[in-house]
Specification:
The protein has about 140 residues and is an alpha/beta fold. Helices cover about 30% and strands about 20% of the residues. It has helices spanning about 10-20, 35-40, 50-55, 85-95, 105-115; strands spanning about 25-30, 40-45, 70-75, 100-105, 120, 130-135. Helix 4 links the parallel strand 3 and strand 4 (about 100-105).
């Protein structure tokens, strides 16, 4: 354990977050997502809900404020899944204001996640429990 570090941040996840640069994307995905097949770098967070992992990540990762939507969720044709509200809450709390989230169709999400710097495979069991976040900068 380290002082000030969220307890859900594992050593491999900490390394990935530190290695990422401005504009790199991170995918936090549910238990049904083909993470091993898609990921360039895979971090396991089995058993943990995706919104809790996102919340932990956002304690360290600045969101990109150079883009209109620094986050994107997998969204089915019938509209946003219930887990989206939990993602929205985590993003808004971390930023201190409402964060715009882009909706992405399932297969387009797979494609975009394949280009992400890393994928965090969670134990989220709710369908469409997947989000991409874009890393921003820390200003002097």
């Amino acid at each position: 354990m380290l002082k000030g570090l969220h307890p859900l941040i594992s050593p491999p996840l900490l390394a990935v977050l530190a290695e990422m640069g401005h504009g790199d994307e991170l995918a936090v995905v549910d238990a049904n997502f083909p993470a091993a097949a898609v990921a360039r770098r895979l971090v396991h967070a089995g058993g943990l809900p995706a919104p809790a992992v996102l919340e932990a990540v956002l304690t360290l990762l600045p969101l990109d404020d150079f883009v209109s939507c620094p986050a994107a969720i997998m969204t089915p044709s019938q509209g946003r899944p219930p887990v989206a509200a939990d993602f929205q809450q985590a993003l808004d709390a971390a930023q201190g204001h409402a964060v715009a989230i882009e909706d992405i169709e399932r297969f387009a999400f797979y494609e975009r996640a394949a280009g992400a710097y890393a994928v965090i495979a969670t134990g989220e069991t709710r369908l469409y429990g997947c989000i991409l976040v874009r890393k921003g900068v820390i200003r002097p």
